[in-house]
Protein 1
Amino acid sequence: EVNDAFLRITGYTRAEVIGRRIDEIGFWINPDERRQGLDVLRAGGTVRDLEARFRTKAGAEVVALAYADLVDVDGRQCVITALMDITPRVRAEAAQREFLPMLGHELRNPLGTIAATLGVLNRRSTCTPWRRGRSRRCTRRAARPSTTCRSRASP
């Protein structure tokens, strides 16, 4: 049996799925992940939180957490599986990993220019002690976000 959520996410019809083995459909992008899960089940275990990638009928990739157990149905051992689609979360995490280094770079560039300009002003003989003190404080403050960006953007 197959539920409506599976059909909706994968794009398959009930007739295309019922009576066919999942490996015949080509649903798992990495069939080794499926085999590993089956090995766990055969050894008496359960599959929990297995992040796996699946291919829909249209060819799109779905990332899901897989949960599976062996159950007895009329004397036959069957695998009952539940999938939780985490594709949006995985895509958001990937976008964040790409965004943070770019943000760090964009913040460091203007702050570096500001810090260099303040350094030149500090060295000028016409700079009063008050301005020099303010300039040094600004230089330190400009360097702080740059360091923060560098540490947060680096893996």
Protein 2
Amino acid sequence: VGSDGGGRQVNIRVIDERLSPVLGSRGGVYSKTSTVSVSSEQIVSVLQEEADRVLRLMDYVPTPYPENATRLTLYLSSLDYRVSGNRKAAVTAVFRVEVVNAGRSYSGQYNAFLERSFTLPLNQEKNTKLVEHSLADAMTRMFKDPDLNRVLSKP
């Protein structure tokens, strides 16, 4: 991730567009009741903190005041968790982003797919790490996008 923000202010807003907090099922005999879920409030908070952290690393100043700041809106379009019969768990994360800065705008979509094999059923901690890694991968792709960075860094 580059560091070309020059101390400019960016208003970042995270919106959860998922239709349900349920990501999927752990599978097995009790698959209907063995779901993996993340509340909208929890996921928005985590994504907001991470986006703020990355923007600071890029030498931007995250700000809640949109008047004179660049606006970056991050939409979590989907976050899915699947377990296959061959003992693999997969998480797919999809972000959309819209950036408006100095009369220019950009929109893009970023996907991440992460699959892990396991011998024993995954516990809550391992499921959480799998989801976090997928989200981090999608966010990394977003912040490394040169087109997004061109609009974001325009003075």
